[in-house]
Write a structure and sequence with these properties.
It is a single chain. By secondary structure, the protein is α/β, with parallel strands linked by helices. It is built from seven helices and five strands. Helix 2 packs across helix 4. About 10% of the residues have low confidence.
Length: about 325
């Protein structure tokens, strides 16, 4: 009987140890530190928040509001273990890529994460309000971030690399000024020159890539000298056309002047022809008014009277064509 009791006790101890080991390896408690302490996430382990329920705070050591929230956030981390919520914080000064990935524009910023769905917490920042938010599942009434703004997408990953690059350049600028004694204007000039060269290199690579993907046709391929020759020929053709146009304009002006002179001559001839019949009529009236002094021979029949002068017929000269 004693042996049986010893075996039962040993088996119970082994079962308790196995249960504790399984509980420690469960995904619910995988990210929680002993005693429900605050978890620190960075650029290497931030993917842990994609599983389970999390409350994440983005902070900076120099931020006054973050310093005021720090004690409340630590107390919330100790009580949140009762509702199976993991509490973590991220330092944006040491993990700048995460601030770009989550598009953090103000500090402190709090996010609620539930199985890969991200929601920004905008409520009160006291312990009771935070615990009530997760215990009563008030996060369900908040619309999650759209697929375009989700931190685990490809384009947000690219944005995070740009934030990390800017932070690296900022550190490099500070090192140039502090360690090497480079003045501020010298550092800015160095960055400006580097930006110009990098932009030129990227532009050249882009042009080569476009030419490789969409090569030009054979008819479009011509050297610089050929293009200059074509341009010179075009300029010469244009100059000759202008000269021809000027010659034609001069000829048209001369022909117009000749036509105007002819019209003036014709008008003068018409005026002269209209004045001649009037003079003849006045002479006849003067002859009738004079008294007859002597016998005159018998008047000649009317048919023998001198015929009046006929109007000259004008022949119009043909005008020159334009």
């Amino acid at each position: 009987m004693q042996r049986k009791s010893h075996l039962v006790a040993v088996s119970c101890v082994i079962a308790v140890l196995l249960a504790q080991a399984a509980l420690a390896q469960s995904p619910t408690h995988a990210g929680v530190q002993p005693g429900g302490k605050l978890i620190e996430l960075d650029e290497d382990n931030w993917h842990r928040m994609l599983e389970g329920e999390w409350m994440i705070e983005f902070f900076a050591p120099w931020c006054p509001a973050c310093k005021n929230l720090a004690p409340t956030w630590e107390r919330f981390a100790r009580v949140a273990k009762d509702v199976q919520v993991q509490v973590a914080k991220i330092d944006v000064t040491t993990s700048p890529s995460l601030s770009g990935r989550f598009f953090v524009t103000a500090l402190p910023t709090i996010y609620h994460v539930k199985d890969g769905e991200f929601r920004q917490y905008r409520g009160a920042r006291d312990g009771d309000a935070l615990l009530f938010f997760v215990k009563k599942k008030q996060w369900e009434s908040i619309e999650p971030l759209s697929a375009w703004k989700k931190p685990d997408t490809f384009h947000m990953s690219v944005l995070s690399y740009f934030f990390k690059l800017s932070h690296t350049l900022k550190d490099f600028n500070g090192r140039l000024q502090e360690e090497y004694g480079l003045p501020t204007w010298g550092s800015y000039a160095l960055f400006a020159i580097a930006t110009i060269f990098v932009g030129a290199a990227l532009g050249l690579m882009l042009v080569c890539l476009v030419d490789f993907v969409y090569p030009p046709k054979k008819s479009q391929r011509q050297s610089f000298s050929e293009s200059q020759e074509h341009l010179a020929d075009g300029v010469e053709d244009l100059a000759t056309e202008e000269i021809v146009d000027d010659g034609e304009a001069d000829q048209n002006e001369e022909s117009d002047e000749e036509e105007q002179d002819e019209d003036d001559e014709e008008d003068n001839e018409e005026e002269d022809s209209e004045e001649q019949p009037g003079d003849v009529a006045s002479q006849e009236k003067d002859a009738d008014s004079e008294p007859e002094k002597a016998e005159e021979p018998e008047p000649k029949p009317v048919g023998d009277a001198a015929p009046e002068k006929a109007e000259p017929v004008r022949k119009r000269k043909p005008r020159k064509g334009d």
